[in-house]
Design goal:
InterPro entries: GlpE_sulfurtransferase, Rhodanese-like_dom, Rhodanese-like_dom_sf. This protein is of the alpha/beta class. Helices cover about 30% and strands about 15% of the residues. The protein is built from four helices and four strands; from the N terminus they run H-E-H-E-H-E-H-E. It has a four-stranded parallel sheet, with helices on both faces. Strand 1, helix 2 (about 30-35) and strand 2 (about 40-45) form a beta-alpha-beta unit. The longest helix is centred in the last third of the chain and has 12 residues, at about 70-80. The protein is globular, with a radius of gyration of 12 Å.
């Protein structure tokens, strides 16, 4: 993915689905997640991002991170990388997602 193009959440979800052991992380707050999220995603709000370390103990787990617009997921990706996760990708915002939500 080029650094100069906006993160394409649809392509990101597709890549997540093809990646063994990958986790799809929604960093919106719990009420936003409850209102609709991408199936199979796990909710780890940006405000509680440090809890990811308890949930995802393997630092080599591929992580695909999204929020509403791509801003919070960018902050979460920076934090996760600093925490030692090696395969972290910001796939953007659910506002641009064209698939089904639950």
């Amino acid at each position: 993915m080029s650094l100069f193009q906006a993160n394409d959440i649809n392509a990101g979800v597709e890549e997540y689905q093809k990646t063994p052991r990958a986790k799809l992380i929604d960093v919106r707050e719990e009420d936003e997640y409850a209102a609709g999220h991408i199936p199979a995603s796990i909710n780890i709000p940006l405000s509680k991002i440090e809890s990811a370390q308890g949930e995802i103990t393997d630092l080599d787990t591929p992580l695909f991170v999204y929020c509403r617009s791509g801003n919070r997921s960018g902050q979460a990706v920076a934090w996760l990388k600093q925490a030692g996760y090696s395969k972290v990708q910001n796939i953007g915002g659910i506002a641009n997602y064209s698939g089904k939500t639950e």
